[in-house]
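Retro notes, item 3 of 5
We never archived the inputs for the adenine complex last cycle. Fixing that now. Sequence and ligand:
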Amino acid sequence: MAPGEECSVLVHEAPCLAPPHNNISTVLLVIAMQAEALPLVEALKLSQDDTLVFPKSVPWIKYSGIHDGLHIHIVVPGKDAVLGVDNVGTVSGALVSYAAIQALQPDLLINAGTAGGFKIFDKYGVGATKTIPTPKLVEALGLKLGKLSTGNSLDMSPQDEEVIKSNDATIKDMEGAAVAYVANLFSVPAILIKSVTDIIDGGRPTTEEFLENLSMAADALLKTGICVLKFLNGKSIADL
Ligand code: ADE
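Structure as it came back at the time:
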């Protein structure tokens, strides 16, 4: 074999010099409510470990561990020091996402939580979205795809309703857009997974329906969350 040919064989084998894969390795889940996060923390056997990640003064909590070959971190914004309620909403969601992305450099960010749904939940969301396309994930898990509207109120004012409807949103939460905004700032691929607690245009008081269905929705979120993480195993962002 001529030296040139030998060399060309080596050149063809060159892919071994390139990164072996770009599979997802570190996943950051941002979850606003403890009731939504703790079932996943327990199921994934994650441990609380936030001392080196967040400033001492903040109530934010990080749970971490390895599951199905993925480094998984769940961060929650914790409780309000005075009122004792979960720090839901866009401000806490954005801040905790910012700090966690800086510290953990995730390959993928998932904002998981509950949301209010409209009766027309099946409507496919079209238009500007800052989350990544996940057609294979959606198909494999039989998920519904929709546009999410985020605001800082559980209830919906007439002005909110007008904006939500004019943008074809089919679900409504209190963190998703803020978390996706921060992920986009740092070019971290993001997806939002929401479990519906209440039908906004269903005629019942939202708070009552939300509280009644919270544990059922958290259970559904847990099951779907586990399936999503299983699906991510061995895949790259492009495989989703
Ligand atoms: N989370 C659960 N239900 C919600 C609603 N109706 N609006 C905003 N966030 C929610």
